[in-house]
Design a protein that fits this description.
This protein has helices at about 15-25, 65-70, 90-95, and strands at about 5-10, 35, 40-50, 50-60, 75-85, 105-110, 115-120, 130. By secondary structure, it is of the alpha+beta class. It has one domain (about 5-130): 2,3-Dihydroxybiphenyl 1,2-Dioxygenase, domain 1 (Roll), CATH 3.10.180.10. It has an eight-stranded mixed beta sheet with strand order 2-3-4-1-5-8-7-6. About 30% of the residues are buried. Bound molecules: cobalt (II) ion. Cobalt (II) ion (CO) binds near residues 7, 80 and 82.
Length: about 140
Amino acid sequence: MLGPLNHVGVAVPDIQAAITMYRDKFEVDDITEPKALPAQGVTFAFVNLPSGQVELIEPYGENSPITKFLEKNPRGGQHHICFEVEDINQASLTMAERGVRVLNEPRLGAHGTMVVFLHPADMGGVLIELMETPKEDH
Ligand code: CO
């Protein structure tokens, strides 16, 4: 059921500073422009690497889901990991059947496909995002 690791999510207090860090310290050129995703309460940018992506996320708006995380981790920190699945609805149902708390109804994620998050207490302490694999002919 579990497809490729798609990205590692990193919460940051200042997305421009984080982008500058990847550019200057690691000489990464391929970083997407920051984009607001109001439905998820974050502004995101992808650091594109040969092996996958680092997803930088900065709080957006009043009720951002990462505000609390940044209060605990003021410098930012590793927030979630994201795996691809073929069918997000089926994956959600299967997880729920297996006693894993699915934290949201499938909603549009940063890659333009539907995503859900799984409760870290049911996932060995790791917040896991499942995203539907983008279709080739999309
Ligand atoms: Co993510």
